[in-house]
Specification:
Radius of gyration: 20 Å
Distance between the termini: 15 Å
Helix content: 55-70%
Structural class: mainly alpha
Number of helices: 14
Mean pLDDT: 85
Length: about 280
């Protein structure tokens, strides 16, 4: 979507880097977020810290941080250069392999992207963030069974704190596969976890709209359109819902808001042409 996805990610899903999905174009950066892990246990009585890192590991972490910043800023080539240096310094950071997978996914190199995710999981098999990213990758490749297995593994991890994002992503993949009931269930699970997240609300409303459940869809999209997170796509969905329910006043109000706030948007063009079945 043409939202400032990084700003929304920072405000609603936590500042962790930004690139992913939502229903075709919506919030394209959110579902490929780079989630960096905390310290891991070292023995029974101590925790590893940066003081325990070798010089090679420290260099690798510096390059990884640089790569993450470049990736978040959309500087893909620089991000790839930095992540390669991170792996060259120390190939034992699963986060670096994960980011490598995300970078190659962004530039449409599926074989290299999958290699990155597989190597990340080889280093840290229980990394739920990687399982999420790999699941989204597999979904995009049409490998739905494998994608669902990765999402399930991520959600089964008791220490995973981004469950809402994974439930949402799983729901979108299920919708893509035509699994209507499962898609709604997953999106509702995401909403229950983060009821104020506008990305989830939009995707749930969109799914209900596609199911012709217009009253429920309206209940989820209306708060988004009344908030700072409204944009051309959320307003457009609100307009289409208002037309379906015969609410002419709402159609007029939302159309005026769309034209005023996003005059150059694709949705204004569709509105001018009265193309409501896009």
């Amino acid at each position: 979507m043409r939202f400032d996805a990084r700003a929304l990610a920072a405000g609603m899903l936590g500042r962790a880097g930004a690139n992913g999905l939502a229903s075709g174009r919506l919030f394209a950066g959110l579902c490929l977020a780079v989630l960096l892990a905390a310290c891991t246990s070292m023995g029974k009585t101590d925790l590893s810290t940066s003081a325990d890192d070798t010089e090679a590991r420290k260099r690798a972490r510096v390059y990884l941080e640089l790569a993450s910043t470049y990736f978040s800023d959309g500087k893909t080539t620089f991000a790839l250069d930095a992540v390669k240096q991170s792996v060259a310094a120390d190939n034992g950071l699963y986060e670096a392999h994960n980011l490598r997978g995300l970078i190659y996914m962004r530039v449409n190199e599926p074989a290299l992207a999958e290699d990155g995710f597989r190597k990340a999981l080889a280093v840290q098999p229980q990394a739920a963030a990687v399982q999420h990213n790999y699941g989204w990758f597999l979904c995009q490749q049409g490998r739905m069974g494998e994608a669902m297995a990765q999402f399930a593994a991520a959600l089964a991890n008791p220490n995973y704190d981004a469950r809402a994002k994974t439930w949402m992503t799983q729901g979108m993949c299920q919708a893509k596969a035509g699994q209507v009931a499962n898609a709604e269930k997953s999106l509702l699970m995401a909403f229950q976890l983060e009821p104020t997240n506008p990305v989830i609300s939009y995707n749930l409303a969109l799914q209900l709209f596609r199911q012709a459940d217009y009253a429920r869809a309206q209940a989820f999209i209306a708060p988004v359109n009344a908030s700072q997170w409204a944009n051309s796509e959320t307003l457009w969905l609100g307009i289409k819902l208002a037309r379906k329910t015969g609410d002419g006043a709402q159609v007029t109000a939302l159309s005026a808001g769309l034209r005023k706030r996003f005059p150059q948007s694709r949705e204004v063009s569709l509105l001018d042409k009265e193309v409501f079945d896009d």
